[in-house]
Amino acid sequence: MSLGDDTGRTRTRLPEGGGDPYGGARRGGRSSSRSLVTVVGVVVLLIAAIAFANRGGDDSDAEEGSGDSPKAAATAPSGQKPVGTRTAGIPSGFAHDRQGAQSAAANYAVALGSAEMFDKERRDAILKTIIVPDRVAEFQATLNQAYTPEFTKNVGLNEDGTTPKGFTFVSRTSPLGTKVTESSADTATVEVWCSGLLGLAGETSTNPVTSSWFTITMQLRWTDDDWKIVTRSQKDGPAPVPGDERASSAEEMAQAVQEYGGLTYAR
Q1: Inter-residue contact 238 to 213 (CB < 8 Å)
Q2: How many domains does one find in the chain?
């Protein structure tokens, strides 16, 4: 029988040896045998279900659909080697196909959500790397209006975008999956589902690190032998129900950010 505990988790209670799991009188040997067979059968079925769920798909499952709608394994590894080049510290040289567009979009989401975007010089270098040339100036002007001294101060930074002494600034985006909604030979629209961290880690921080969930949509164009962003938009969610994990201390969060480097993505 299933019981809920104080943490919200579910525990399964199996019959105790020789006793009635429902509190009745002691059963005979035949009933006990039937109960044991039932329990063993349930365990076997459970193991089989777990094995089936964890079984890797065949080659047809790993392939993307011929239409715009992705299959369930849309973000499964493609078997292609990750890109080996970087431009301004950002992976570059993606494949000229749907897989390459998704890999580019995932890596660009990481760059656009990084702490480096709060430094104007570094932000301009990022935009020159991932935006189509004819839209770079427009993106720079728009983001210059967004990253104002008031905004940087609201997230806990100094007005010039630097981190106050004794604190660790956290701004990190982690893609969880990608989906191509439209594509042609030289264009692609890719949605990237992400989780993000933003805030200031420190004992006296008034802007502690918080998490968020959002989806970024990028229109990409094949330009100068690589995928580049033409437009970008963002919406909230999908967001899961918060878990019951204990929030880490400011010291633990700062240490994690300093010790665990970010990831690059290629499918």
Answers
A1: yes
A2: 1
pLDDT in tens, 106-153: 999 999 999 999 999 999 999 999 999 999 999 999 999 999 999 998
Which DSSP letter does residue 195 get?
Answer: E
- What pTM value is reported for the model? 0.70
Expressed in percent and rounded to 5, the helix, strand and coil fractions of the chain are: 35, 25, 40
d(Cα 193, Cα 259) in Å, to the nearest integer?
A: 25
pLDDT tens digits, one per residue of 153-199: 889 899 888 999 989 999 999 999 999 999 999 999 999 999 999 99
The DSSP string of 67-91 is SSS--TTTTS--SPPPP-EEETTEE
- Residue type for position 241: V
Is residue 199, in this structure, part of any structural domain at all?
Answer: yes
Residue 149 in domain: yes
| H helix intervals, the chain | 29-54, 59-62, 98-112, 120-130, 136-146, 149-154, 250-259
DSSP 136-149: HHHHHHHHHHHS-H
